[in-house]
Amino acid sequence: MTKKLQSITEKISPALALVAIAAVWAAISGFELVPSYMLPSPVSVARAFVEDFPLLMEHAATTLTEAGIGLAIGIILAFITASLMDRFKLLYNAVYPLMIITQTIPTVAIAPILIMWMGFDMAPKIALIVLTTFFPITVGLLDGYASVDADAVSLLRSMGAGRLRIFFTVKIPSALSHFFAGLKISASYAIVGGVIAEWLGGFEGLGVYMTRVRKAYQFDKMFAVILLIIIISLLLMLAVSLIRKAVMPWERKGVLKK
Amino acid sequence: MNISADSVLIAENISKSFDGNRIIDNVSIYLKKGEIVSLLGQSGVGKSTLFNVLSGLYMPDSGKVLSNGDDITGKPGKISYMLQKDLLLPYKNVLDNTALPLIIKGEKKKVAREKASALFDKFGLGGCEKKYPSQLSGGMRQRAALLRTYLSSQGIALLDEPFSALDTLTKSAMHKWYLDVMSEIELATVFITHDIDEAILLSDRIYIMTGKPGQITTEIEIKEKKPRKENFNLTEEFLNYKRMIVEKLL
To answer: B7-79+153-249 is classed in which CATH architecture?
Structure first.
């Protein structure tokens, strides 16, 4: 009973913090401590969200499509790269430093270049998303492959298993939890990456919507779209957790035992 | 050394070095059908290295490993090897873990599962088929690991300190269980231990390995018949064996 109570308190406290922040925000804009055209009240943000909902959804669909395609390509590329790097030490040594360097290139700097190369359609957005999601997943997979128990590999070899069998029976399952940790980060990167690319040029998408309402000084709509991006990112992360649970049932049962 | 004709496993003059350090030197052992032989020695004497050679995971610098007359030196997959850790894969249930060696050998999944599950009761694992390893106690996990070892073997197994991680009470229950199971299945076994009592209790013969590089310095036969009486470990004979071993080990 106390445990249940504890878990309820644990769940409620972040919600309370959120409510408190919203209350402070409402008070600031309500008493006009900051002019309302600069800081819209939570109520007007909510109204903007509802009024523009169909339009927001249209743009969200574009961004989500880009994110989905980009993430899928990112996962496939990451899987191939990480597997080859794990298999060939030379490749690992050659490529790993390069991968680190690509991560230090600011997204906002590379996005306009991609747009100049690829135009204003989805291609440059997807390319940027691939670039940003590829790295966390690759690193996750590499860590996962490296975390394999060397004794487990010996055991399978002693049973006469070949390299491929060992890869699929031991390496991939051991890498799964690392892979999902990387994927969770990448899922939110995918949305942000897409929005940034859309900002810099495009015809539709949440980033495009954002630049339009910014130019019109519609702060309430700015906040509404930020809210939507937060919600989408959280939902994506939730989806990753759910997939993880479905793919790795042994984790769940292990926890149950304890 | 009396290598008899009915030996299922023979290792001849095995030597192995790492980075110029000789770990084992000129070691020869043999194992007869259905026999349990233990390899007793201090940590670091080269017991596990010898096992890695016997299982084919390491290529010896010199010497040969023969199984039923075939040269299997450096060829894994012929002799099953149970390492110290149970190494049950956490993401497979117990049945699939034990069936794994059969699947690796090319059996269909369904057939492999049937073969494995037919042995669950004999190994005291009945009802655990669908459980994950994390849901089992240490003793049960070792049972599952031994069943997997048995299924991957063609009558010969190497066990590297299979019971060392268990607490004393579980360990002695496992000894009894192990002897029971071994009396029903045919599995010639070499097992590593540094527990003298365990070696006397379970083995038909004991090799003592000492020195640096490690060599087999003594071979002792435990003449007590199997099944051994309940309180064998309290008898004068047992103590005599123990005295003799302690003397040779030091």
So the answer is: 3-Layer(aba) Sandwich (3.40)
